[in-house]
Amino acid sequence: MKVTKGAGLQPAMDWLIAHPGELEDEPIGQTLGERPAGESIEGEIQDGEQTAQSLQCNDCQKLLRDASAAQVHATRTGHVNFSESTTAIKPLTEEEKQAKLLELKQRLAEKRELRTIQDKEEEKTRERMRRQSGKELTEAKTQMEEKEMQKLLMAKKKEKEDDKIAKAKIKAQIEADKKERAAKREAAKQAVQAQKQEEAAAEAAALAASKKEYTETRLQIRSPTGAPITQTFQATDTLQIVYDLVSQHVTGPFQLMMTFPRKVFGENEMQKTLKDLDLVPSAVLAVKSL
């Protein structure tokens, strides 16, 4: 049996027939599979050895039927120290089974109730979070709208200020243009006045020079009823002399006048000279009947 490694009696006999004399020195008992006194076979329960009947939790000393029960116990209690035990757990009676089943049902019901409570609490928590999130979102939206409104108001305010500045610039430009045009008109007016004054002075100077040059004047006097009277007078003659001459040809009261520029001579001009009345070197007079 030793040679055949415990394959059985028939293989051992076959080996002995095929190998005669090779085991002469060995005891026959050993050849046939017998063991010496005190030698043990592997796997054989010796005196004092007992088979493990259960598992024991070293943390709480509770006996467990098998590894599955130990795993459930570890999950429920958190205990992790287990060892094999030779103590056998007697089978449960029918009453104990019913009690265990009832206890299991109660535990399941408690777990369901606990789970329901937990679900409700989780739902409440989610609802609070949802409301808080909605509130925060609303506040953020409100703040954003307020910021946008503030930006819009600032933009409108800036636009009004820009419009005000632009209008002020336009108004200032208009005033400047008015002042410039007024200054130009005033300058032109002054230039015209200066030119007129210069022309008047030149004309007066020329007239004065011409008056000094002429000592006589030729007058043409137009009568409404007769032919014109043409006569030469001295520049120093008075208008009364001319009036007396015309009265010889006109009946009734009358006045002498100039047609251009229109001027009627009255009693105040009768003693003035023809030179003083600007009737030199020639002039046209008309007779105005009264």
From TrEMBL:
InterPro entries for this protein: Ubiquitin-like_domsf, UBX_dom, Znf-C2H2_OTU1-like_C
A biological process term (GO) from this entry: negative regulation of protein K48-linked deubiquitination
Keywords: Cytoplasm
Region annotation (Disordered) ranges: 21-52, 118-139
Domain of life of the organism encoding this protein: Eukaryota
Keyword Cytoplasm tagged: yes
SMART domains referenced in this protein's UniProt entry, alphabetically: UBX
Primary subcellular site in the record, as a coarse category: cytoplasm
One GO CC annotation: cytoplasm
Gene Ontology MF: a single term: K48-linked polyubiquitin modification-dependent protein binding
Record localization: Cytoplasm
Record keyword Nucleus present: no
Domain UBX: 212-287
Gene3D superfamilies assigned to the protein according to its UniProt record, in alphabetical order: Phosphatidylinositol 3-kinase Catalytic Subunit, Chain A, domain 1
PANTHER family: UBX DOMAIN-CONTAINING PROTEIN 1
Name the record gives this protein: 12959_t:CDS:1
Native species: Cetraspora pellucida
Organism lineage string: Eukaryota, Fungi, Fungi incertae sedis, Mucoromycota, Glomeromycotina
